[in-house]
Structure formats: C-alpha cells, structure tokens
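Q&A log
Question type: sequence-to-structure
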Amino acid sequence: AKVPQTLLKLCQISLGPSAPMQAALPAILGGTPQDWYNNINKELEASAKCCVRRIREIPGLEVNEPEGAMYCMVKILPGYFDEQVGGSDVDFAAQLLAEESVAMLPGQCFRARGFIRVVFAASVEVLEEAFDRLE
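Response status: OK
Response body:
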C-alpha cells in the first residue's frame, strides 16, 4: 500500500488498551509513587512547550496550546505548502514520512482536514530532532 493509504488504515485501528490491561490498571496506578506522576507531568509539559514553540517558528503552520492531551492539532495554512507537498494534509504527512522519517498523522484521520496531529509523548531531544528535520 502507498503511504497515504497506510496512514489512513493506521487511524482506523483501535489503539486502546485491552480489557485485561484495563482491569489491572487500578492496582498498577494505586501502587505508583506520586513522584513518578510529578516527573511525567513535568516531562510532558516540557515536550508540549517544545512542540508549540517549534511549530510556531515554521511559516505556514499554526497551533494552539494543548489542553490536557499528549498531542496537538496543527493547522496547515491553505495554499502554503501546495507546491512542495500537494494540497492536502495526507500529502503533507506522507511526504514528511517519506523524506524525513517523521510520522505525523493527517487530520483527515480525525475528521479535521487541513490539520496534522503531532504527538509530543517523546523526549524534548527526540522532538527537537524531528522538528529540525521538518524545517
């Protein structure tokens, strides 16, 4: 399959946890020290700030601050990248994956044409490298 079709198929897969994992979560989470949660929240906040900062530095892209998710929806300004990557978010995501090995899901997977979804659940170092490739 071609990259756009593969990305769309990925969006259609249920990526949620299995029933046994859901049943085990209360015991797992109840036994996890508070420091772990505090550290994870700090890391996610740093990653989110990194993403927002780097996206805002790229002409043709717009983003709002995420509010509780580990991803942000990035608007591709109409007509801005048409000559380089075609006119759709699927084209944008496919070319980014093919040329730079950076995976971002097209907004069409989430009924948000003209957007891409950027997940920031990686370290700041990994995100910086990904945005260096994107630029």
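Response note: The first helix runs from residue 3 to 11.
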